[in-house]
Amino acid sequence: MRADVGREEDVKHIAATAIKTFGGFDTWVNNAGVSIFGEAMDVSIEDMKRMHDTNFWGAVYGTRLAVQHYKSRGVPGAVINIGSLFGDRGTVIQSTYASSKFALHGFTESIRMELEKEHAPVSITLVHPGRIDTPYNEHACSYLKKQPAHYMSMIYPPQAVAEAILFAAEHPKRDMYVGSQAKIVAVLGRFLPRFMDKLMELTMYRTQHSDRPSKSKADSALYHPGYGLHERGTNKGWMRRNSYYVKMSKYPLASAAIAAFVGAALWAAVSARQKD
């Protein structure tokens, strides 16, 4: 069905259609999103508000409707919000996108605590994707002269995000990071903020666009649906086949055991060399 998640009435219609068709639902994923590429002082306030309608308010509408549905029926359910590594750490050129994801991360953490306090049987998961090979850049509204792109960087397949979502739907998880890239950025941004400021100033201007001329803002998906039904983008970079970090998150005890074994083996090897 067609819907604009930036309109609460449309989100209510999505929920009503699911209930009418399937009798209800036990998993709700807030995945719709779009970006704007341009420096903070260049992007119009109108475009900023429109993007927040989709990225933030769309997720708020969906989360509240899903929680109300689970509570009214007395059944357990899951809400999975798709955040971003830029919701953990701001970046240049995508300030509007980062701000919408920071808002979503804060809302997700807050409603999770409120539901836990009242012992509601609802799991709230925040997924933190790194750079993913979808038409994200092709759909973006660009104020740049060159076309937005994941350029010269590590890129993960959309299946890795789907794997994280499916696991969170079946196993309550607080957070799921898609790619070590996302986790590293979050950790460094928290503990070494000034270092990350300089690193992003140095690298992110030249790795967020291609050499091709940028499409017109009117061709973006900011105010209307994106083109076609394409799963992949036109990105050129280091394409990963999956996310080992997602797989490790699914089996934390086994991953910890492997890490401990590798650490012990390295320690034993170093000790043996010192004795020689």
From TrEMBL:
Transmembrane feature ranges: 251-270
This protein's name: Oxidoreductase
Species of origin: Heyndrickxia coagulans
UniProt keyword annotation of Cell membrane present: no
Keywords: Membrane, Oxidoreductase, Transmembrane, Transmembrane helix
Record flagged with keyword Transmembrane helix: yes
A single GO molecular function term of this UniProt record: oxidoreductase activity
Span of the signal peptide: none
Protein family according to the UniProt entry: Belongs to the short-chain dehydrogenases/reductases (SDR) family.
